[in-house]
Amino acid sequence: MSRAAQSRRWLGCAVVAFLAAVPARADVVVTPSSVAFGSQAVGTVSAPVSVTLTNTGSRRVRFTSVTVTSSAFIYSGPTGAFNLDPQQTVSVAVASKA
Description:
Elements lengths: L2 H17 L8 E4 L17 E7 L5 E3 L9 E4 L5 E3 L4 E8 L2
Antiparallel strand pairs: 1-2, 2-6, 3-5, 4-6
């Protein structure tokens, strides 16, 4: 599987993981909706890519945790439980390891 396909798959998993904690009535937007890291040399780490979660709803959203299950990615952002109040955003960074 290409790194770009893995990247998109990872982001999809991340979105599922993030949204698993979101009540059905909440509105959370993930921007960008996919991430592609492109080609990189073996043994290197890509530049981090910023992903933003925005609560566009009118209720607080509680995320219980964030977990990265692949050693092919480096995650930087909240790791424990956190809240997003209405109209609040949080940015996380993701990098790939080749």
